[in-house]
Amino acid sequence: MIMQKGKVKIAAVGLGNRTCKYLRYVEEHGESAELVAVVDPDPSKADWAREAFSLSSEHCFRSFDELAASGLQLDACIIGTPDLYHHELAVAAMRSGWHVLLEKPMGQTEEQCRDIVEVSAETGRIVTVCYILRYHPYFMKLNELSSDPRMGKILSIKHIERVGKDRTAHTFVRGPWNMKEMNTTVFFTKCCHDVDFVLWLTGGQVESVKSEKGTRIFTSADAPAGAADRCVRCAVEQGCPYSAVDLYLRRKDWIKGFVAQPGESQEDMILRMLDESRYGRCVYCCPENDVIDRQSVVMEMADGVKAEVVMECVTDEKDRYTVIECENAVITGDESSIEVTYKDSSVPQEKYDFQWTRGMEFHAGADHQVVKEFIDSIASGELQTRTPSSEALASHLICFRAEK
Ligand SMILES: NC(=O)c1ccc[n+]([C@@H]2O[C@H](COP(=O)([O-])OP(=O)(O)OC[C@H]3O[C@@H](n4cnc5c(N)ncnc54)[C@H](O)[C@@H]3O)[C@@H](O)[C@H]2O)c1
């Protein structure tokens, strides 16, 4: 085993919501890792990073090319940009000699995903794909139970992702994930790690994939009478479940990505966003939005197991609900608890409480576990990862097949 001396030197590319979660770990574990450089085209993000990590201006770059040309000595790169750039940046980082912690999805086409796997093998750089369900205590318990010999073989799985109407309105209707051209499909973006989760449970070889899509409900034809193009000017906003005024101003939800201007109060920042930004628009007045709100993908495995992943966007709940039908028991989970009901009624039911993980920061620790293992693996020279690109490829390919 090669032992690498010193801290793992990291660059962060794309300083958004996700990367900042991983950087919190780096910040708290200065003994094992050091943030050396950042890349983001948004100057306000660079200002934030300069202050938060005491970086010099010379180590805050506007593009990856500038970072690559800087000659900085790095071990690894965290890539948390919009999906569109994942492939290009991951390949460039590996070719620069750096290991990569890569947000999902890896790429937007089959060729791009295969390319990442090939470049990883060719360069000997690891790519840890942020499939955080595999690092999450609740999903790990479902995996452990479903492989428990007491359950017998898995017969079928139904796994439903209830995206929730707030996330749907913010991210997939008003936000930058509302165009297929930029991000492929909502199912791919949102559920590639759900597909990975069921593949992880079954370990199965998928033989056939069937996909059924729902319709779009956020079109101008669906707008209620009296709706205006922006919620701040809308006469029927108060009764609308998708009101931006209610979401951002009254409930102060989903505002983490809004950046205040110098001297601006939070209230004024939200009012400005409602008045000027994409997030203040009526959900029925986002003409570029072309993504759907429901999809079901059914996979038939070579060993006869049938697994279905359903994405429902417009729901009050925001969780994942799973039913695993086994030979001897049925396992059900809704992220708050897991129940095991044995078919032999003389065997007592088992219940596992996971309420403690709900609303817990950083996906109940999973966000930090993925970056911890990534850093430790580089530091030790083992270069092992729970979620390598080679394994993440299968779920990506199924999503592409579902699209076809
Ligand atoms: N693993 C998960 O559970 C999970 C959850 C949510 C999102 N994601 C994925 O994480 C990624 C980032 O999502 P987010 O919510 O953090 O987005 P975000 O919009 O908050 O952040 C993206 C950042 O990238 C920057 N950026 C844009 N183009 C860039 C470029 N070419 N080079 C460098 N920086 C660039 C933007 O300025 C922004 O600061 C997405 O791919 C998304 O699909 C993963």
Please give a structural write-up.
By secondary structure, this protein is of the alpha/beta class. It has 3 domains: 8-131 and 365-388, 3-Layer(aba) Sandwich (Rossmann fold), CATH 3.40.50.720; 137-218 and 289-359, Dihydrodipicolinate Reductase, domain 2 (2-Layer Sandwich), CATH 3.30.360; 220-280, no CATH class. The chain has helices at residues 17-28, 43-52, 64-69, 86-95, 110-123, 137-146, 165-174, 180-183, 186-202, 244-250, 266-276, 361-364, 366-380, 389-403, and strands at residues 8-13, 33-39, 60-61, 76-79, 99-102, 127-129, 154-162, 206-213, 294-301, 306-312, 319-326, 329-333, 337-342, 350-353. Nicotinamide-adenine-dinucleotide binds at residues 13-18, 39-42, 45, 64, 80-83, 85, 103-104, 130, 132, 189, 257.
Brief summary:
The chain is an alpha/beta fold and 404 residues long.
Largest sheet: 8 strands, mixed
Distance between the termini: 44 Å
- Strand-residue proportion: 15-25%
> Would you identify the CATH H-level superfamily of the largest domain?
Dihydrodipicolinate Reductase, domain 2
Structural class: alpha/beta
Count of discrete alpha- or pi-helical segments spanning 4 or more residues: 14
